[in-house]
């Protein structure tokens, strides 16, 4: 196949995903979907899955490279540009309690989720992605981990589905508990609790707005600190995977024959780029209008990545994953609600 023909076929696949992504943006702005605070990313993966289970076999196979390009390359660019949502000044506003609480929540959720997944005898990739999505920032974290672990697309879709279900549930439960006074938290504590335990950024925004401006402002900043923690988590994941592979190769006696470099740590360059963008954004060099445009463009890139991942996911693969991923997500959901409340009620005040 000529290079020009290959690029043309790839372009067809990219344009197809872009069309679905435009539809996702339109659907996300409808009244019902907005009331659920579902982002275009979530709508995109649903549209992609609808395509995978209906029209996929009727379109040219030569379009597949363009779909894969969106799920791999555009994904990494989208993660990097996501850094424009954050600044280091945001961290200073909420101080040490938020950093400590977020660190505990992320660490326990990710490591605990992987351990529970092992006890449930789940697929390791799905368990890891579900734990990272629940512990950090929902779909965006799942995408970041997927780009590091490089699992099959359907595993990513399963993990994202668990995040959507329990994150949406929490978005309605938290305001109800706060208004009833059951939690016994003041607005600052409730903001810390919400930001450190809800799954998606959109879920935090939706729940925060339902509880008032004071809660919302704190919750969003605390949530963004969790997003920053995606970088060290990805580095730890990369290091751990490299060590595991090295041990396996040593057992097989391959390391000596290949020069011993099979266990080399692969640093996810997009995670480093993400941190670099946060540092640049903290300098305040770009006008607000430019930042707003970049952020909106980034949402579109991430929506394209999610749509492409959905396009590689069939219902049969969901059946193959079974009920265990949702059971794991439910266990993590209970931990986030109970453990997060204890941290916000007792640990955070002690650190102030």
UniProtKB/TrEMBL annotation:
Membrane-traversing stretches: 12-28, 35-52, 96-120, 126-145, 157-177, 224-244, 265-287, 327-348
Keyword Membrane on entry: yes
Top-rank taxon, per record: Bacteria
Sorted UniProt keywords: Cell membrane, Membrane, Transmembrane, Transmembrane helix
Protein name: Uncharacterized protein
One Pfam family linked to the record: Cons_hypoth698
InterPro entries attached to this UniProt entry: UPF0324_pro, UPF0324_YeiH-like
Family listed: Belongs to the UPF0324 family.
GO cellular component: plasma membrane
Compartments, record wording: Cell membrane
Bilayer topology: Multi-pass membrane protein
């Amino acid at each position: 196949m000529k290079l020009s023909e290959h690029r043309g076929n790839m372009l067809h696949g990219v344009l197809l995903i872009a069309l679905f992504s435009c539809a996702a943006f339109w659907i996300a702005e409808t009244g019902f979907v907005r009331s659920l605070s579902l982002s275009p990313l979530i709508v995109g993966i649903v549209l992609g899955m609808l395509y995978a289970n209906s029209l996929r076999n009727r379109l040219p196979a030569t379009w597949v490279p363009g779909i894969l390009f969106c799920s791999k390359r555009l994904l990494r660019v989208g993660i990097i540009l996501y850094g424009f949502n954050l600044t280091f000044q945001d961290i200073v506003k909420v101080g040490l309690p938020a950093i400590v609480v977020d660190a505990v929540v992320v660490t326990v959720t990710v490591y605990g989720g992987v351990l529970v997944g092992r006890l449930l005898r789940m697929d390791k990739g799905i368990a890891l992605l579900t734990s990272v999505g629940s512990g950090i920032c929902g779909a965006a974290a799942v995408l970041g981990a997927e780009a590091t672990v490089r699992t099959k697309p359907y595993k990513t879709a399963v993990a994202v589905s668990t995040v959507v279900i329990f994150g949406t549930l929490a978005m309605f439960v938290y305001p109800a508990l706060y208004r009833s006074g059951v939690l016994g938290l003041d607005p600052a504590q409730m903001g810390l609790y919400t930001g450190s335990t809800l799954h998606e950024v959109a879920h935090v925004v939706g729940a925060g707005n339902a509880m008032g401006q004071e809660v919302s402002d704190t919750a969003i900043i605390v949530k963004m600190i969790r997003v920053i923690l995606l970088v060290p988590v990805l580095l730890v994941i990369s290091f751990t995977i490299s060590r595991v592979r090295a041990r396996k190769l040593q057992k097989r006696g391959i390391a000596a024959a290949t020069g011993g470099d099979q266990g080399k740590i692969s640093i996810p360059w997009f995670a480093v780029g993400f941190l670099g963008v946060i540092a640049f954004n903290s300098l305040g060099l770009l006008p607000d209008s430019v930042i707003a445009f970049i952020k909106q463009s980034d949402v579109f890139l991430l929506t394209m990545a999610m749509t492409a991942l959905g396009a590689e996911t069939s219902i049969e693969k969901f059946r193959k994953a079974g009920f265990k991923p949702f059971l794991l997500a439910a266990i993590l959901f209970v931990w986030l609600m109970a453990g997060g409340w204890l941290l916000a009620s007792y640990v955070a005040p002690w650190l102030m």
